[in-house]
Amino acid sequence: MSNADGRLRVAMIGHAFMGRAHSQAWRVAPRFFDLPREPVMQVLVGRSPDRAEEAARQLGWAEAQTDWRAVLERDDVDLVDICTPGDTHAEIAVAALEAGKHVLVEKPMANTLDQAERMTRAAERAAARQVWSMVGFTYRRVPAVALAQRLVAEGRIGEVRQVRCQYLQDWLADEQAPGS
Ligand SMILES: NC(=O)c1ccc[n+]([C@@H]2O[C@H](COP(=O)([O-])OP(=O)(O)OC[C@H]3O[C@@H](n4cnc5c(N)ncnc54)[C@H](O)[C@@H]3O)[C@@H](O)[C@H]2O)c1
């Protein structure tokens, strides 16, 4: 679903840590990739009007709102990008899909199996209406990861019996850092 001129009008809900990262991605993606649709940073949604206004201005969104439900009723929104804490993902995603909006939900998809299953059922119903959804796994499009996925999918390395991964980060190297 997109509007007549082929643009993809985005509403992003949540504008703090991951909202900033997603804003950067929406800004630069069409400058780097040939996209089938031009993303339009239509509306940013937060909880405080002042902070949402300030974030919209700084991050490059056309306007700010504080009620995500109202945004789902708008005709000028094609896709909802969910960057809120995990306990809100299921409610927003299911409502957005039922309103006919494509959904990009930041990982982890949900906090419970029940939430994830409700979201999956809503996504399957939506897909039958050509309304698409995706979980934003950070490394999904990294070339090396995409190549590994393709090698497995094409059967080039045979049946996978064991996977051993390492994920290297230094942000908890400080022994005084609080556990997470
Ligand atoms: N991919 C990654 O590497 C990565 C890293 C950190 C966090 N995350 C995930 O990203 C998501 C967001 O995490 P974060 O660290 O950005 O959280 P955060 O606390 O920094 O930001 C949450 C944002 O959601 C907004 N929000 C909360 N409830 C809202 C509501 N009802 N209506 C409108 N806005 C609402 C808050 O105002 C805030 O702007 C979580 O699912 C988290 O697990 C992913």
From TrEMBL:
Keywords, in A-Z order: Oxidoreductase
One annotated GO molecular function: oxidoreductase activity
Oxidoreductase is among the record's keywords: yes
Domain (Gfo/Idh/MocA-like oxidoreductase N-terminal): residue spans on this chain: 8-128
Highest rank taxon of the organism: Bacteria
Pfam families for the chain: GFO_IDH_MocA
Protein name: Oxidoreductase family, NAD-binding Rossmann fold
